[in-house]
Amino acid sequence: MPTTTVSPSRKVLGKSIYDSIGVRPLINARGTVTVVGATRVLPEVQVAMDEAVKDFVQIDELMNGVGLRLAEITGAEWGVVTSGASAAITVATAGCVTGGDPDKIWQIPNLDGMKDEVIIPSYSRSAYDAAAKAVGVRMVEVNTPEELKAALGPRTAMILVMASGASEDGPLSLKIIAALAKPLNVPILVDAAAEGLEVPNPHIAQGADMVAYSGGKYLRGPQCAGLLIGRKDFVQASWITSAPHHGFGRGLKVGREEIMGMLTAVEMWKKRDHAEEWRTWISWANYISHHLEQVPGVKTELLLPKGRSNRSPSLHVKWDISLIPLTGQEVEELLWENNPRIAVSGAGSYLPFPPNMEPNIRINPSQLAAGEERVIAKRVYELLSNPPQIEKPSGPAALDLSGLWDLEIQFVASVVNQTFMFEQKGNEIFGTHHASFGPRDLTGTLHGNDVLIRSSYTNEGVRLNFQFTGVVSNDNMDGILSLGEYGKAEWNAKRRHY
Predict the structure, then answer these.
(1) Residue 343 pairs with which residues in a beta bridge?
(2) In b/e form, how buried is each residue of 388-421, taking b as 16+ CB within 10 angstroms?
(3) What pTM was computed for the model?
(4) Bridge partners of 372?
(5) What value does the mean pLDDT take over residues 434-457?
(6) What is the mean pLDDT of the chain?
(7) How far apart are CA 385 and CA 363, in angstroms?
(8) What is the pLDDT of residue 14?
(9) Which of 118, 152, 363, 428 has the fewest CB neighbours in a 10 Å radius?
(10) 297 pLDDT higher than 70
């Protein structure tokens, strides 16, 4: 039978289990970012997960026992383990829409006759809105207490607040929102994915009914687990909409090993030596800083977190680009292609827009293993002390692209037709990319026949960043489209003649 188990000899050689399938492991100097593996799981959590798989258990009974324990630890009325913070938002939304009524659960996403609106402050709009919208609700954005008061009504299922954007003394603080929502019994959900577990819970104390956390971030639990704690009736209604129960949330499954791993992470929160963890992170950042500042033109700054989210330090590394002719993006890419692969700043994640053309990177030490700080210091030192020559497009534009172009994109399983509208000034390109979701501004360059076009749509939490690279020939152009986290596609465009 095929196996991906790494043999002892491969382990001795320092190989990873991922090498056995041709996938490169990496050093995570970005922090608890999902796409590069998120958190370094606590050893106690791994032991709990290993123990949990040895026996079977009825999942509802298990979650009931966990709910009692979570209430005891967190001080909240109840808690459940979900398949991540995003899933916690989804099931909480479904729970507020349905109230735990199975008939309504089976009606989702058709919300006819049901509460079908979620109010969200403008400062809370993000890509994670999609977790609530999956239920079929309409997001209602508000900016002031007056707008919130006008938006509240019989169709309001819930109010969603992003903890990292909320200000305790702002015009739409959680306290102000709660003062308007409580008399109407409209529940408030706070997304606190990257926070730790303060007791008493600061969000519940300010009026939140439920709070969602990620297991794969500061809590150092399983990446595919999260936490929903708060008011017992709403949290239990949310659990009913989730797996193992059939209907809308069946796919949001969390296994017995993840449930016990997440519970262990919560129990360990009070036992961990947070001060010692912090001292270790600072020492690693200082080690890297000391080495890099020996390079002429390099300066570093230790950045400390503000607020409750992502409570870890990071090292800001910047350099004199006249001495070290590399942009931040180029250094990120060079480290990403390094052996071992090192992820810093935004490497390995979505396509940044605009790209980091400044001479700086950020290094987060919170997910390193002992010794990896030395690898990072050595490799970044080598790059900045002896920067490679990177060939960049140059020369005048071969032609003028101004006008309307018909664009065809070959995605992995579909072909779509869109348009470019260009205005060109020398090598610089400006205009509009009319895509399927909506129009967005574009910028780009044309050097000789080499074209680069970037477009971005980031309204209402949507995150679409496209980068077209290719070659122009008369009235045609084609090449490769980088879709960031969504992979790559092929594209071609033809100038439209009238």
Answers:
(1) 28
(2) eeeeeeeeebbeebebbbebebeeeeeeeebbbb
(3) 0.91
(4) none
(5) 94
(6) 93
(7) 18
(8) 61
(9) 428
(10) yes
The per-residue pLDDT for range 404-445, each reduced to its tens digit, is: 999 999 999 999 999 999 999 999 999 999 999 889 999 999
Distance CA 109, CA 245 (A): 16
Residue 251 has which token pair? 């796919």
How many CB atoms lie under 10 A from the CB of residue 211?
30
Query: What are the chain's domains?
Result: 20-35+274-385 (3.90.1150.180), 43-269 (3.40.640.10), 403-495 (2.40.128.120)
Amino acid at 307: G
Chain centroid to CA 226: 14
18-69 pLDDT tens trace: 999 999 999 999 999 999 999 999 999 999 999 999 999 999 999 999 999 9
Indicate the pLDDT class of residue 347, thresholds 50, 70 and 90. confident
d(CA 215, CA 39): 8
Q: In whole angstroms, what is the distance from residue 111 CA to residue 136 CA?
A: 7
What confidence score (pLDDT) does residue 68 get? 97
